[in-house]
């Protein structure tokens, strides 16, 4: 059985006699997927068939072919894994708020199960779909090790406030999930053929940001990356994770963002690893569980997470006080996007993100804070940072990304520091501070080489 604390009832409804439908929109995997497992459990109890539906929206925030291509190639693998379990994978296209209810009715589904997501656009989808249906709709949190709603029913204001709540519950959830079973009841509904290449080619999305080849999508690649991290990088993670030249990060964020890897699977693998230091394991679990789940808490309880209105009161006041301060540099969005500021370190971080779809975590903080320093208002800074992050990062359009930008620019989950121009008492980061932590020149040279080998240098 799935822990009931993972399940949130969006619509009580009256269950029908037809199949159970699992609407996949966040957790794009067949393994370690509590939404899918919950749907199968109900289907087995009722002796009915089970199908998985995915609706490909023509637009999702500022995603380009880079992100859509990664998603679709991973979904093709997941569809094959589900077929091995006699579970059909139905691909729909269009507005999920319209197409999912339509398919529910066409298939005479008796119950709908779907994924938890804290983002505003997804909350809108879920609300619209639930309103259209008169059958039960269950939302299942497979995104978090400890379910977001179980941890707290309000916005937490810092890691220190949510950490004890998560740690208290963690032993109850840090367990091996059950396996998905072959489904014994054949699905009789319509399953359209999926031409994956045609689906990709037919997308009306921006193709000027190309896909990347340093990382492969899908559940198997995610498992391989997790294993490589544990074997080769976990031991140095605690000491070197803030060094962009250290090459010790897990590189799991794209897989976690697209739901190709369960955070529970990653937590179990690292917790049980024989290699790696105790400090490395604890440091990684802090990021994976506490910090990541704090982001979901923030976005769920703060619908304006992408606006300066989400800042804590102290940060709003100090930034307003310093909004009229003279900026030594003020750049427009195009200059930021082209990595043409006066700061070689900032430019290097932007080049890394544009060319590879990835930016080192320490550099993300520096990058966002400098956007605040070089724009006229905090809202301008938020808009530019979010646009660039969502357009280029593989793991953009994510609670982690929105929370990270809000932390950097608006002091969310942080405290007041020494007062200075522009920033007020929001935490400041400098080129000199970076030089004291790692080889800045080495990082800049490496990113220039990466950029020169990319299509963007032409």
TrEMBL record:
The keyword Glycosyltransferase does not apply. Keywords: DNA damage, DNA repair, DNA-binding, FAD, Flavoprotein, Lyase. This is Deoxyribodipyrimidine photo-lyase. Residues 18-148 form the Photolyase/cryptochrome alpha/beta domain. Its EC number is 4.1.99.3. Belongs to the DNA photolyase class-2 family. It catalyses: cyclobutadipyrimidine (in DNA) = 2 pyrimidine residues (in DNA). InterPro entries: Crypto/Photolyase_FAD-like_sf (IPR036134), Crypto/Photolyase_N_sf (IPR036155), DNA_photolyase_2 (IPR008148), DNA_photolyase_2_CS (IPR032673), DNA_photolyase_N (IPR006050), Photolyase_Class-2 (IPR052219), Rossmann-like_a/b/a_fold (IPR014729). Its cofactor is (6R)-5,10-methylene-5,6,7,8-tetrahydrofolate; FAD. The keyword DNA repair applies. One of its GO terms (molecular function) is DNA binding. One of its GO terms (biological process) is photoreactive repair.
């Amino acid at each position: 059985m799935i822990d009931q604390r993972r399940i949130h009832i969006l619509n009580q409804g009256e269950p029908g006699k037809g199949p159970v439908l699992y609407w996949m929109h966040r957790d794009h995997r067949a393994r370690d997927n509590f939404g899918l497992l919950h749907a199968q459990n109900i289907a087995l109890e009722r002796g009915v068939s089970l199908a998985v539906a995915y609706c490909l929206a023509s637009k999702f925030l500022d995603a380009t072919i880079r992100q859509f291509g990664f998603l679709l190639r991973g979904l093709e693998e997941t569809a094959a894994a589900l077929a091995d379990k006699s579970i059909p994978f139905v691909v729909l296209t269009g507005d999920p708020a319209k197409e999912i209810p339509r398919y529910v009715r066409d298939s005479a589904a008796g119950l709908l199960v779907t994924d938890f997501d804290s983002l505003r656009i997804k909350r809108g989808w879920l609300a619209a779909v639930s309103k259209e249906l008169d059958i039960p709709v269950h939302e299942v949190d497979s995104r978090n090790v400890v379910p977001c709603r179980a941890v707290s029913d309000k916005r937490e204001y810092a890691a220190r406030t949510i950490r004890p709540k998560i740690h208290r519950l963690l032993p109850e959830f840090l367990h091996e999930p059950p396996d998905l079973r072959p489904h014994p009841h054949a699905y009789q509904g319509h399953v359209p053929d999926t031409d994956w290449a045609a689906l990709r080619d037919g997308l009306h999305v921006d193709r000027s940001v190309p896909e990347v080849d340093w990382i492969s999508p899908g559940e198997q690649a995610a498992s391989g990356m997790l294993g490589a991290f544990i074997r080769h990088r976990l031991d140095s993670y605690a000491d070197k994770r803030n060094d962009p030249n250290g090459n010790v990060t897990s590189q799991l964020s794209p897989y976690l963002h697209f739901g190709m890897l369960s955070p529970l699977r990653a937590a179990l693998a690292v917790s049980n690893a024989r290699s790696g230091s105790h400090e490395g394991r604890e440091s990684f679990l802090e990021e994976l569980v506490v910090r990541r789940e704090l982001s979901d808490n923030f976005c769920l309880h703060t619908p304006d997470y992408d606006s300066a209105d989400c800042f804590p009161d102290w940060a709003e006041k100090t930034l307003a006080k310093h909004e009229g301060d003279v900026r030594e540099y003020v750049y427009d969005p195009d200059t930021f996007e082209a990595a043409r500021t006066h700061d070689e370190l900032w430019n290097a971080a932007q080049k890394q993100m544009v060319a590879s779809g990835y930016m080192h975590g320490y550099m993300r903080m520096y990058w966002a804070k400098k956007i605040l320093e070089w724009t006229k208002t905090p809202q301008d800074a938020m808009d530019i940072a979010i646009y660039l992050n969502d357009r280029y990062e593989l793991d953009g359009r994510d609670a982690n990304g929105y929370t990270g930008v809000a932390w950097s620019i608006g002091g969310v989950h942080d405290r007041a520091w020494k007062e200075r121009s522009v920033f007020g008492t929001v935490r400041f980061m400098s080129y000199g501070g970076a030089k004291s932590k790692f080889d800045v020149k080495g990082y800049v040279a490496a990113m220039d080489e990466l950029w020169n080998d990319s299509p963007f240098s032409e």
